[in-house]
């Protein structure tokens, strides 16, 4: 019996010592607390969101505090305290995301340098049971003053469906800038690398009514400035055209679409045409907008006036088309380009120098090529038979890029030619006129 008591005592003592050692390892040892910045601005404007990730694999996180220090002034930003679950388990908080929304002005801080500091403690028994302290800090610049915008270009005369160029400068570095035309944003590009002088090609939609135009610039701290500029807009009424939709046309064109778009099957020919001319047309124009706005060079690549295919003009820009079937109007759309007919399968030249950013099939436009000319300016060539270039190719004015055909929603062999500014269709006729380009574009460029 005595031996059993001694054995039991020894085993119990061993268990207690082992448990104690494990608790000691957890509460006294373990890796240090980790502080990982998630979003920390180097420049702080009027409103700033700051987020950190805290990790502790030992006794857990006990306390997190943040402050801003400027000179002799320290402003507490608040933090969080986590109570211990028990003296041997710590807090159990191993991972914690914490954010602060900071407004330097309301905190009484001034423009200039400051220190953003994070102070943490874990729940260990180190430092006389106060926990291990760790500090993370970084220098920030407080800047709550919006950039100043100075307009450089003179009065801008534009027409609905037309283009224009605005030049301006800011007094400091900006993270985003451009010109708003109602809810359309046209990016501004530095005149030279690292310059605070900007140029923005803009478009006035063909159906705009009293659009509001202004320049916007956002600095590195998120401060936003806006400025108006002088402009005049001439309102141009599109031509009206009547187009008869025949059974022969539907029999000829619809198989091309039903084979590519299975969702069109099971409908009458007229129903299919209506969906092509409305829903698919909108989807195609949105696809083109994305291609043009996301794949442009910040440099001007075109030189002089653009050139068009030599042939007979068949349709104009923004023509208001009314479609009739058996004498009844069934649909309406605007023609976003110009149509030029020559001989069948006629060679199509690039209108100007640039980079091919798309070759492929786009619904109503059929086989299509899009060329980027820089600053958001692009030319589009549709209803083609085949491509003589590939996406990524650099072309010069006059380079043969394809052959005409009637792919897409075309009634006969011709070229549909469009110009776009940041994905917005504009009147190509302007860009075919060297005098217009000089007076409205190149003369407004600030000197390099």
Question: What structural keywords apply?
Answer:
Immunoglobulin-like, 5-stranded mixed β-sheet, 31 strands
Secondary-structure map:
Layout lengths: L1 H27 L5 E6 L3 E2 L3 E8 L5 E10 L2 E9 L13 E8 L9 E11 L3 H4 L3 E10 L6 E3 L4 E4 L3 E8 L3 E8 L2 E4 L1 E2 L6 E7 L9 E7 L4 E4 L3 E4 L5 E5 L2 H14 L8 H26 L17 E4 L3 E7 L2 E8 L2 E4 L5 E3 L4 E8 L5 E8 L2 E11 L6 E2 L4 E5 L10 E7 L2 E3 L1 H4 L2 H7 L8
Parallel strand pairs: 2-8, 10-18, 19-21
Antiparallel strand pairs: 1-3, 3-6, 4-5, 4-7, 7-8, 9-11, 11-15, 12-13, 12-16, 14-15, 16-17, 20-23, 21-22, 23-30, 24-29, 25-26, 25-28, 26-27, 27-29, 27-30, 30-31
Helix pairs in contact: 3-4
Outline the structure in words:
There is one protein chain. This protein has 448 residues and is an alpha+beta fold. It has three domains: 30-142, Immunoglobulin-like (Sandwich); 149-234, Immunoglobulins (Immunoglobulin-like, Sandwich); 240-426, Glucose Permease (Domain IIA) (Distorted Sandwich), CATH 2.70.70. Helices cover 18% and strands 42% of the residues. It has six helices and 31 strands. Strands 20, 23, 24, 25, 26, 27, 28, 29, 30 and 31 form a ten-stranded antiparallel β-sheet that branches. Helix 3 (247-260) crosses helix 4.
